[in-house]
Each structure stands twice: as structure tokens, then as C-alpha cells.
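Course assignment 3, question 2. Fill in each field.
Student: A.L.
Task: Predict the tertiary structure for the chain below.
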Amino acid sequence: MSGFKASFSNGSAYSDLDNDGDVDLVINNINQKASILENKSEDNLTNNYVSISFEGNKKNSVRIGTKAYVYCEDKSFVKELTATKGYLSASNTNLHFGLGSIEKIDSIKVIWPDGFIQIEKPEEINKKITIKRSNVEFSKLSSVVVNTSNLFQIFPFRHRENIYYDYEKETLIPENLSTEGPAVVQADFNNDGLNDFYLGGARYQTSRIFFKQKNGSYQSPVMEVFEKDNMYEDVDAVSFDFDNDGDQDLYVLSGGNDQLERERLLQDRIYINDGKGNFERLNSPLFMTNGGSVSTCDFDKDGFMDLFVGGRSIPSGYGLSPYSFILRNNQGKGFDIVQEERLGMITDSEWADINGDSLPDLVIAGDWMPITVMMNNGDNSFTNQTSSLGLDNTNGLWNAIEIVDIDQNGTLDIVGGNAGLNFKWKASTAAPIKLYLDDFDENGQLDPIIFYNFFGHNIPFASKDLLVDQMPLLKKKFLSYDKFSKVKSIEDLTGKSEDRILETKEIMELRSMIYYNYDGVYKGKPLPKEAQLSSIQDFYIDTNEENSYLMFIGNNYNNVTELGNSNFNSGGIFYSYDNYNFGSFEYLPIPAHLNGREIISLGGNLFLAISNNDNSYLFYKSNK
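Answer field:
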């Protein structure tokens, strides 16, 4: 560096300015001309290199974030394309790999920003090569983890949420309801005897189907029907044979708290399968709501699969129960609504014969509501039997339910995933959390006000500032924070007594539970403490007598800052169930703070964990 003047620099960028195979530097100097440092490495003729540029296609033009793995004999190199490196500095968008004495590249694996994998085998080195994104897209993934020392392996699908902050529009909302996906469905879509799966995208992200191959790999071809519909947010989905032609069609539930009810971007969709895994969207008017759960069953036993479509929320009306629908399949010609009811803010649903009368009943769960059982009357009508089954005081923040005979006594039990005990709010039947719904300031906008028990005192969850922002009339009523701190009831806050409020909802249970069926009445037992450390989002349960286990996935990043994220336990497995207890526990071998949503089995001990706004991960369950 001799001959250079002293300078004060605050940014730099690099590029092969003279195309001689090595990287030169451009340095930004304060109050001086920029410096250019020429790299003289070309004088060492024994070193080799390869420079890679990337070119997207019309449908996927984004290059920033692309990763390249260069494999050479027993060595490998990896770089990620990030052009910005310093203050007001951006390097070129080529990835430069110095190879030293290596004379041949075996292959280059490119992982594009959306997770699509492409393999190239360059024949030459010491030059710049351009890798163009393939238009015939498929992703292959070995069913066996190559490096068995890794606890998990990234699967080539990353869920990407669109940016929307619910609380900017709904000041008092405690959770973001615009980040509910992704939808996951496992089925044999192309009738080859192998289980494929559908992964739904967030808004402006294309959904994908991964077709399993006989060698254990997966292929994910570009499907134009899903690319056309990438403006929808897929929050749930179910496979069913809508038209009874012997293949699995798709009902995809749309959601998102960023749209109002009856807006086009909330419309559900049915995709008809041609039997080979090719889909066409059915031109049918379907619901346009913020969906929460969809499940399927032939409840009238006519040979056609029927549906339950559960509503998650009314956008801009947090706490109000949207309509949910029980739909009878009109022999593949459409659906008839047999029951329409405001059942709650639904997150999950399952069909099962709860009372042993050979008729499938409907079990649903959600926020600010009990685990609810709609009993099948056998005449295309359903009756709410929650109270008579002993479930009337189970109001929680339920995310998932699983119906299974876990104690193997011949009756079906209910396993429920809740918010857990590692949570700011505490709840019980004696001291429930309360949600008051009314237009307290009479300005035409719903005001959802939450009170919770804090060391024996009921206090408002929202701060004085947020409440004043929602209801400006409170500013004059509470001129100081000290006066606001004296509020102990909704009447103290608003001047309106509980008996005059439009609607009040409660939470009495935050623990994740197993509800055992004792002669038609359910009694709850909390899951062990390891399951209470965070929110549970999904279960996978195997009741095999020799190797029974209960697997769960969890965490929740949807809460507002005042409530805090639940991120202490991304998942775990309970083993050796016996006499209402589990013998052992181990954490899932996945990232500890993953915002997990679903678990599916890929056969044997191999599982796939799907997350919200993050990567998906393959992992192996240990043999116990």
C-alpha cells in the first residue's frame, strides 16, 4: 500500500473492473476523490477462479438473496448474493469464487430467493458464467439427509408474509390476524400411490405442490393456475374428491386481516384435479371472509364429501364472531348451506364420531371460545352440545385440536393446543380474562377492550395512550396516568356497566390440554410442563401400543408488543404414554425459535416442520 495518501474512508465496493479474474476495490473517501485499488493477483498464474452472474426469468426476476454452492472434489464453497456492503456502497451482482489450485468444478447448486433449487455443471473455469433461471422448474430433495450429523435440513420452501401491521388499523387488537398461514395439505394428487403435499403461500406468494417420486425425492413443477392466484393468502386447505371422479381436489381457504369482508382477495377457491396432478380453478362463487379453518367429511353419507368452513375474524371488528358454514356437497354441482352460525373466532376444526352413534360430529376451537362440539342430528342439522359434554368452561386461545383415543379405552379424546402458561395473561374460571365489545364512544367503530387479572386486580390490557388513541374522549376523563392506574373495571373506564355492554367474551384456560372422554363427559388434564412453555400450533399423534408418542410444534410471533412473543419452545415429543402420563420428553431437532405451524410425516421417522414467515425444515424423530 506504499504510495497511497492517508485518507478517511467510510464505504467500499468491489468488482472485477479490468476483467482479469480478480476482484478490485473502489473506496469512498470523505472530502477526497475515491480510491481504486487494482488487484494484481493475476500475476499468480497458478490460482483459478469462477465468477457467476444470475439471470431470473419473467415470473421470478429477483436475484438478491440467491445462494450458490460450488462443489469441487472434496471441497465446497458457498456465497449469498448481497450487493450492499457498506455506507452508500453497492458491489456488482456477480459472485466471485477463488478456487486456488482447483482445476475443475463438479457442479454448482443455486438456491433462488423463493427456495427453488437449480443444478448446473459448468465445463470451464477462469471466466464469468451466467446462470439463467430454468423455466422448467422442479425441486428435488432426497428423502435421506446426506449429512447425518445435521440435526435438521432446510426444505426448499420458505413462507414469506406480506407486510401489514394489524394494530395500525385496529389500535386495541392483541394479536395480528393477517399472519395465519401457511396452508398445508398432504394427499396423493397424481394417483401414483405416493403422498404429495400442497404448501400455500402468503399474499403475493405462489403456492406449490411437491410431488413425491419413487426414489424419495420431490418435484415441484410451475403451476400456472397457482401463479395466477398468488394475490390470495392461503390460511388453510383440505383435499377432497369434490366431483367423485376418483382424485383429490383442493378447497383453499383465503384469509388476511388486511381486507374487508366480501372483498375479492378474501374469496375461497376450489381447484379441480384431472387425476394427474394438474389443477383448474372451479368457476364458483365462494365465501369472501377471513377464513380460519376448513375440514371435510361426508356427514350425510351420500358418497360426496361435505365441508365445514370456519371464519377466523371480522376484519376491523376484532372479537366479533364471523359466520361459519356447514356445507352439503350437492353431488359435485356446488354446495348447499345447511347451517350458518356465528360460532366464534375459529382456528381449527375436526370431524369425528364423538358420541358413538356412527354419525360424524364437528369439533371446533378458536380464540375467546370453548372447545365446541356440534353434534350431528342425522337430518343435515347440528346441535351445540358443548355444555352437556363438560366443555363449557374451556374458553381459551386455542390454535389446534386433535381427536384421538389417546388412552385406548374405545372413546375419543380431545387434545388441544393453547397459548400456554409462559404468557403475560393468566386465566382461570375464577379470574377470567375478559374482552368487552361495544362502541363505547359512539363513533361507529367497535372498541374491543380487554381486562385481565394482575396480582388480584383487574386492569385494562391496553395502555392509557392506546385507549385514548382509540377513544379520544378518555383523554379528558383521565388527565393523569395516576388517575388511570386506579381503573379496576370496565365501568371505571367507560362509565358503562357490564350488563349494558353489547357482548363480553372470556378466557378461562390457557394451558394446552387433553380432555378425556368419561362416559360422554369430558374432563381435562394439562399436558406436561414442557408443553406449557409456549404456544402449541399443531400435533402429530401416534397411538401405536409399542411406540406411542405425541409430537407438537409451536411458538407464536403474532402477538402485539405489549403481549410479547411466545418463542420458548418450537416443538417437542412426549413418549411412552401410560396411565394418563408420558414417560419421557425431548425437544424437536429444529431451530429453537422457529415460528412453527404444521407437522407432516414423510414416512418412517422423517418429518417436515412448516413455519410461518420462515423456512421449512426436515428432521428425524429418534427411535424410542
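Instructor remarks: The first strand starts at residue 9 and ends at 15. The longest helix spans residues 464-470.
Grade: pending
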